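Board work, copied verbatim: Fructose-1,6-bisphosphatase class 1
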Amino acid sequence: MQTLAENLTSQAISPALEKLILTLADTSIEISHAVRHGALAGILGATEQENVQGETQKKLDIITNDMLKDALKADGTVRGIASEEEDYVVDADANGEFLVCFDPLDGSSNIDINSLVGTIFSVLPAPAGEFSERSFLQPGRNQVAAGYVLYGPSTMLALTTGKGVQLFTLNPETNEYLLTDPAMSISKDTGEFAINMSNQRFWEAPMQTYINDLLLGAIGPREKAFNMRWIAAMVGDVHRVLCRGGIFTYPTDNKNPNKPFKLRLMYEANPMSFLVEQAGGKASTGYETIMDIQPTEIHQRVAVILGSANEVDTCLEYHQVDYSQEPTI
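↓ predict structure ↓
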């Protein structure tokens, strides 16, 4: 099997980008070991700190954030770093070519129950001039690489550099990532959806109607049975979509009017959208294509609807209906 390094060489990407991806991969192997040690290493549980989103930080959130931050600052190719766990952007190497955004441990609420977690990353070109948060405010179309690492029964790396999506599996004997799927592809149609049903009463009318029609199955307007799957970690739910199709959505809701969106644009929605589009799927907020959004701040949140192209299109059709109008009798 081809190693990650061999695969990157075959893609003819720049030596700097190859070095950066290998640094991310090597750090993810260290994170994988930390996750697997769990309670044995005393790294489970929550701290008394909150991140910039107001979420209680887990011990492993902080540990993995520091592991990635230290590795990227030492890499030499990285101009700056943005993380879910950092209030502000982090300066790295003044000569670095790239900016890296990451969620060090997506799904960290799953840590204490030994369920799926992962790392998500996005690589952007570093613009010339003074380094600041504005340097990161680029649409997802500017990404030169993106991926995630899933820490499950096997540790797996899904990666795109804009030339399709490759899936690598960590060989625990050699600590090497080996290519196990050279061209991941999302089926255009699906019979699976993933959504947090506990928020149903807070969704907008288009999503309420869409999900209700899915739940009606063969006797509803879709005339087809659908199954629901929900892992409560974006990295796990998107991995399933990449492997066997489906639609994943975390839509707009009014549960907290000050926070109508859940997922972060720069280090969750954009990298996952890049992967999904490169695998033949689609990604939208319901009203605009995610990777076309011009960011306004580093921790910006957006609604997410992504997955099998035809099913995403169907969901978007519901969002074009004006549900404010009373039906005509």
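The two ends are 65 Å apart (CA to CA).
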